[in-house]
Design a protein that fits this description.
globular, 64% helix, mainly alpha, single chain, 80 residues
């Protein structure tokens, strides 16, 4: 359990709510790390920029990129 409670949508600012929408669309739910980062909007913005950069990278095939994400998630014990 996290030491910091995540922000719910009604507590979050507009950018965090927008991030919640995109996260829910991609993963089916808003995960706790995103809710915790919503406490610091600049950190959330940096995460969004990193995610967009990784999604825009064209050096790998999309299927291979997805397989690599799954492999790394299983190696580090990430539930999603």
């Amino acid at each position: 359990m996290a030491r910091i409670q995540g922000l719910e949508a009604r507590q979050a600012g507009w950018f965090a709510r927008l991030a919640y929408v995109f996260t829910r669309r991609k993963l089916g739910r808003v995960v706790l790390p995103i809710k915790i980062m919503a406490h610091h909007p600049r950190l959330l913005w940096a995460l969004a920029e990193m995610e967009q950069g990784q999604q825009a990278a064209k050096s790998l095939d999309a299927a291979l990129k997805s397989l690599a994400e799954v492999k790394v998630a299983t190696l580090i014990g990430c539930p999603f």
